[in-house]
Amino acid sequence: MSAVPTTDASGAAGQLPRIRSALDRLVSFKQGTSPRSPEGHAFPLSANESPYEPIPAVVRAIQEAALGVNRYPDNTCADLISEISSRFAVPEDSIAVGCGSVGVSQMLLEAVAEPGGEVLYAWRSFEAYPILTRLSGATPVEVPLKDGAHDLDAMAAAITDRTRLIFVCNPNNPTGTVISRSDLETFLDRVPADLLVVIDEAYIEYVRDDDVPDGLTLRPGRPNVVVLRTFSKAYGLAGLRVGFVVGHPTVIEALRKAFLPFSVNAVAQAAAIAALRSEDALMARVETTVKERERLHHTLTAQGRPVTSSNANFLWLQLGDQALAFAGHCAAAGVSIRPFAGEGVRVSIGSPTENDAFLAASATFPTPPGHPGPGEGTLHDTRR
Ligand code: PMP
To answer: How far, in Å, from the CA of 310 to the mean position of ligand 1?
Structure first.
């Protein structure tokens, strides 16, 4: 910690409050921008959200709950936990809820990570992992992806006696790649039994590859494995912030201690319950998104774009040094996507209209010399 001498707005010399040095290397979470086309249209495809408005049953639950917001929410989220318990056939004492699965991830880190400890994950993966790890005071250990997918051998080799938590993102954000059941089981068998493994399944509902396991089926006999889920994607509640984790009751008890009181509000709890009760309608939307994903994949391949096979609600284009220019070109057409400089871009699957706007923008991106042009590209198809 360091006290920084400074001058305040009035010009008086003084000192600023001490800030934890762990924050020095932290970069704030970046949210996508909202560009508009010359005609004023905005096509938001940068945050992997559901493109659909809430269904009427969810809207009704939200309206009803809104009338009670003068009261604090149920801090134990009892009704929501009971609903999750029956839906996923897991005991209530094996479930903890949080403010988005980001909030739950923070609780997990609060429970096991500390300065001197290490948190292991593949990279590139979900951008919140390094932020939350540094916030916890622990040290991130990032294991590079191999062909756009988790390198589980390298991850197992990177485990030390300082490792406190491992994030495994399946499907991976931003590449959309997946890990098969046998590969994941082999990896889990190599992880010491006292080391927490978090299988982040934010996009599980979009998976259509039969080899990919439902993480919940990997838990029996593995008390160190927890499965992280969210209501932000397939359930369409990104704006309300609810996520949950399924794990061993001892882990769950620790997590509940790390819960920021009242951080899952009553409107969010009611909406999540209503969403679970309306699952058929919501999963029909997921099916449409999956079909759109395959349509985009096909068209982008025909355009010669280096697109990776995805099992999530987004696609990854490995554009290398063209990533920023490509995203800028899309932004000029009102399409916001997520660029990662020097690596690629992630494009969320939106409504058919939004997707068409993106495809049109992609079709007119001038391919520089030396890069495959439309029709001459090779399909970069990485399934694992
Ligand atoms: N995990 C992954 C892999 C994600 O991509 C996201 C959202 N982008 C989250 C977790 C967080 O979701 P939320 O906090 O909205 O539940």
So the answer is: 16
